[in-house]
Structure formats: structure tokens, C-alpha cells
Amino acid sequence: MSTESFIITSARTEELDPATRTAIIQLCIAAHQEEDFQHLFSYVPSGGLHFLAYRDELLVGHALVTTRWLQPEGHPILKTAYVDAVSTLPAYQGYGYGSALLRRLASEIGDEYVIACLETERTAFYNRLGWEVWHGPLAGRDEHGLIPTPDQTGVMILRLGQLPALDLDQGLTIECQPGRIW
Ligand SMILES: CC(C)(COP(=O)(O)OP(=O)(O)OC[C@H]1O[C@@H](n2cnc3c(N)ncnc32)[C@H](O)[C@@H]1OP(=O)(O)O)[C@@H](O)C(=O)NCCC(=O)NCCS
Question: What is the CATH number of the domain that holds 14?
């Protein structure tokens, strides 16, 4: 990868201008082949932290961090950086942009969060970057209790510094969000 014209920036959702929002949506749709990304800024109207990779003026990579609340079994609830909408423009995939973006993300969020989480089908890609698959039973938490998610696969965590020892074979829960658990 040539790094001469490659930069990574980060910005809060509120700071994104309309053109950048449009570029993010188009990038996510192109990468995931998923039209629902049209609604990204309805799902995340504010409070997200966006990582943006530019090749010259072109947005080629994106990842989004929002705050969620994991609870590993036997531990308190942890302020969690939940990572969504990880995307590299198809023509630019396989050149290291996604890896660079995720390394930058991990290096920037350690002051605010002790752990990061995501769910993916690309576990090998994230594993190379230090993420670990959670092997234990998974569930959502809501006001009524736990909602087991036994069919969920590909939930991964990244340890960010001052985290107590975790057993990845124990249970892991996350607060339910409207329309999704993981
Ligand atoms: C997953 C995704 C974000 C990765 O972004 P990317 O920019 O292609 O990532 P990288 O180029 O850093 O790494 C991709 C692969 O290329 C390899 N690679 C990176 N730089 C390379 C180089 N210079 N030469 C050869 N291979 C390289 C990496 O080892 C990696 O291999 P792996 O997938 O087997 O782990 C991107 O492919 C994408 O947007 N996919 C569609 C949407 C998606 O699946 N998102 C993630 C779901 S959570």
C-alpha cells in the first residue's frame, strides 16, 4: 500500500457534513451490498465516533464506534466500544486499508473504553488484528432479564488495556437495542 496520499481521520457523528455522510453511506452500501445503510444516520443520529480513511480525496474506508454495555459473566458491566459499518471500497479491498483503519481505531479508543466488541463473518481478518472470538454463551439483557442468542456466531472482543482477566468460555451479555441484540 502506498501511504503517500493515505490519511485516517476520526470525527463525531455530529461533526460530519452532508457530503461526508453521503460518502459514508455509499461506501457502506458498496462494501456490504446492503441498502439498509441508507438509514445509518437514523440508527446513529449522534454520539458515534467515525474513523475515515482517505486515499487522496476519496473516502475508501470507514468504521463506526458507538457506546454499548457488555457484561462478561462474573464481571461488572463494562463500557464498550461497539464497532459497526466496517467497510472498504470494493476496488480498494485487500491493500491494507481496513487493517490500518482498525489499528488506528484501537489506538484511539483506549482512554474511553476498556473493551471493544463487534460481530462479523470475517473472524480471521479481525483475529490477525488482535480481536478474539467469544466462545461462551451469548445473550441480550433487557428489563425482563436475559434473552439467549444461541445461534449468534462471530462475536469478537478486543481487550483495551485496564481490563481484568476474562474467560472467553464464560457467558457474555449485551444490552438489547431496538431491532438488534448483537
Ligand atoms: C472486511 C473489510 C473491511 C476488510 O478491509 P480491507 O481494506 O480489504 O482490509 P485489508 O486489506 O487490511 O485486509 C484484507 C485482507 O487482505 C490482506 N492484505 C492486506 N494488505 C495486503 C497486501 N498489501 N497485500 C496482500 N494482502 C494484503 C489481509 O491480510 C487480509 O486478509 P484476510 O481477509 O484473509 O484477513 C473489507 O473487505 C470490506 O469492506 N468487506 C465487505 C464488508 C465486510 O465484510 N465488512 C466487515 C464485516 S464486520
Answer: 3.40.630.30
